[in-house]
Write a structure and sequence with these properties.
3 domains, single chain, 16 helices, Jelly Rolls, Phosphorylase Kinase, domain 1, alpha+beta, 658 residues, six-stranded mixed beta sheet, Transferase(Phosphotransferase), domain 1, disordered C terminus
């Protein structure tokens, strides 16, 4: 007689971490799981006889079969019990334990959305599967090798209004192949609100044909707000793609012949490359990437080519010193931006690795999301979320046909968002990061004009036991702090200085540094200091706003920006203090006098430049900060060559876009 025959339904026991052995080799649907929930591979699934090997898996969790952009997501609409095991042809799931603080007879392990979802592929998020403690999905009959696992989430049990139903909090852990890949995952925070989709990509290595994806509630979050039984893991859909090119169907003889020929050719090529000394860089790149493989999603070159229509020039949205940027769509319809780097450039390789190492360890609403990378042949590709409104520089003072009408509320929101992102990098993240290249072209805007900091190719780890970082100077003139530009003395105060410059640009609608042929160079920061001495800071506000702005907020933002650009690093505020001042939680201190001295001729020239000629070609003002031919510092190139959307102003790429 099996162990569970004498268990009663009323027994409140969590068996999710126990290891019981099934009585036979066949898999049965039971009331209590009869396998190890933590081993990663179920014995009955290992012995499953597969008619053929598979290389993908798509499950519409908690809902019936759905077609999404040519992909069929399999039916998972069966009702679960407090502890159950269900097996389909090529996948299975187990749900363990029940909601102890609710009426077990009334609890459903599937939940339905009750509001209208204005998101892509809404059919995947109308219903979801949940569990009180442990929910595990298994894919089997998979070909061994690397895979990309995409998990689809949407918080559909809470509301976004101010009622008590918005007070719920859900947090759970995610395991892939038995390894913890995300602790205390909160759908609402990652998606930026309730009723919004969020997808997370993970790399997995399949061995013995079985893949395990496990969600586990570790006791965090609310359990009875807004209602009992709303805690625990919640998943909307699962997509599994191969990280390799699936083999075509060929006879054994044909395959053997092809393999022999390929092995010989590869061996010959490797011998030639080794003889020429060309493998040193590739070997080092492979070693450096080995430790990063499981932290981010891995894409094949075939997937990237399909997403960008084979890197069609019509999809090119930018070009920089180390390659081009393309817009594309993944097979599930997700828009992406693909940053292409040249593998022949050592600085490009270094920044490629730096960006992966840095951004893969960071998660914040105001930092650009990195979906994954592709390294095949001579291709080095980074795959990001796509930003519909390009970068802040183009929106403010790019070519007129691409400028956006940013009202005061939006401008203030952008500055607060940038400040929050930097506060996370400097003070809240597990790794303390100095970005080193904060500027308007590295702030991207999504469809709702929310700012996201991008381009971490020059980022440096700020070790807490060191007063500063001594490093080669790299960045963009006009945004670099003076102590860093002149002496290479790098701290988080350098980012704070750069933020102050960007904030002045947002308020004024002007680039900090601008030059015109046959005329002298004007510095926005100098103009701001002069207006402060004259007691007329409000004149700095963009004339395009007219009178439609909050005067107190504008003055506060300008004063905070001037504090951030103080020539003495120690007098610049921490970014957390900047956030508090911009949100009105802390008063802005009185500014000291800088004692700026200017001639009347200089004053009049600056006034005409920043306030007089509304018809000047403002796009020319940012040529240096957006062009790869812009100012460079030391031996390191200006990061303007690495902007995610760095379109040169003398090209026709602006006009090719819709």
């Amino acid at each position: 007689m099996r162990f569970w025959k004498w268990l009663t339904v009323s027994l409140c026991s969590d068996l999710s971490y126990n290891n019981f052995t099934a009585g036979g080799s066949e898999c049965h649907e039971e009331s209590v799981t009869s396998y190890s929930a933590t081993s990663g591979l179920v014995s009955c699934l290992q012995s499953q006889r597969c008619a053929k090997s598979r290389y993908n898996l798509f499950i519409n969790c908690g809902e019936s079969k759905a077609e999404v952009r040519g992909t069929t997501y399999e039916d998972d609409s069966q009702e679960a019990t407090p502890s159950s095991f269900f097996r389909s042809d090529y996948w299975a799931y187990s749900s363990t334990s029940y909601f102890a603080d609710d009426n077990i007879a009334a609890v459903s392990y599937k939940v339905k959305n009750t509001s209208t979802l204005s998101i892509n592929n809404a059919q995947l998020y109308m219903e979801a599967r949940r569990s009180a403690i442990s929910l595990t999905y298994y894919g089997f009959c998979l070909m061994d090798g690397p895979y990309n696992v995409t998990l689809h989430f949407a918080e559909i049990m809470f509301t976004g209004n101010e009622s008590y139903k918005s007070l719920g909090r859900r947090a759970f852990n995610i395991y892939i192949q038995g390894k913890l890949v995300w602790k205390d995952f909160n759908i609402e925070i990652e998606a930026g609100g309730v009723g919004k989709e969020v997808m997370r990509n993970f790399a997995a290595i399949v061995t013995k044909g079985t893949l395990e994806i496990r969600f586990y509630w570790a006791g965090k979050g609310t359990t009875a707000i807004p209602d009992g039984g709303v805690y625990g893991p919640l998943i909307s859909a699962i997509s599994v793609y191969p990280g390799f090119d699936p083999p075509a169907s060929k006879s054994a003889g044909t395959v053997a012949g092809i393999l022999a020929a390929v092995v010989f050719v590869v061996f010959l090529i490797l011998v030639i490359l080794w003889w020429r000394g060309c493998l040193v860089l590739k070997d080092k790149m492979a070693q450096d990437l080995k430790g990063l493989a499981l932290q981010i999603g891995l894409f094949t070159l075939r997937q990237i080519k399909a997403a960008t229509n084979n890197f069609d020039t019509a999809n090119k949205i930018g070009e920089g010193g180390f390659g081009s940027v393309y817009k594309g769509f993944l097979s599930d319809g997700t828009p992406i931006a693909v940053k292409q780097l040249s593998s022949n450039s050592q600085p490009g390789n270094n920044e490629f690795l730096t960006e992966i190492e840095t951004i893969s360890a960071l998660q914040h609403p105001h930092l650009l999301k990195l979906y994954g990378c592709c390294i095949e042949g001579n291709q080095l590709l980074l795959v990001y979320e796509y930003m519909e409104n390009n970068n802040l520089a183009r929106a403010l003072f790019g070519p007129k046909e691409f400028q956006l009408k940013l009202d005061w509320w939006t401008r203030h929101k952008i500055c607060v968002g940038i400040a929050r992102g930097l506060a996370y990098l400097h003070e809240e993240s597990r790794l303390k990061i100095v970005h080193r290249d904060i500027k308007a072209t590295n702030v991207l805007l999504d469809k709702d004009l929310n700012p996201k900091i991008s381009d971490f190719g020059l980022a440096k780890l700020d070790e807490e036991d060191k007063t500063h970082i001594s490093t080669k100077i790299a960045g963009t003139y006009g945004y670099m702090a003076p102590e860093y530009a002149m002496h290479g003395y790098l701290t988080d105060k350098a980012d704070i200085y750069s933020f102050g410059i960007v904030a002045l640009e947002v308020v004024s609608g002007q680039s900090n540094t601008s030059s015109q042929k046959t005329k002298e160079c004007f510095i926005l920061l100098d103009w701001a200091h002069f207006l402060k001495e004259r007691g007329n800071l409000i004149e700095l506000v963009d004339p395009r706003l007219g009178s439609h702005f909050d005067k107190e907020e504008a003055l506060a933002l300008i004063k905070v920006a001037l504090m951030c650009t103080n020539a003495t690093p120690a007098l610049r505020p921490q970014m957390s203090s900047v956030v508090s001042m911009l949100e009105g939680k802390v008063a802005v201190p009185v500014l000291d006098s800088a004692g700026a001295i200017m001639t009347e001729e200089k004053i009049e020239a600056m006034r005409k430049h920043f306030r007089g000629d509304e018809h000047q070609a403002v796009g020319e003002n940012i040529t240096k900060s957006m062009s790869i031919e812009g100012p460079q510092t030391g031996a390191a190139s200006s990061a303007s060559g690495n902007d995610l959307y760095p379109v040169l102003l003398d090209t026709d790429y602006w006009h090719k876009r819709e």
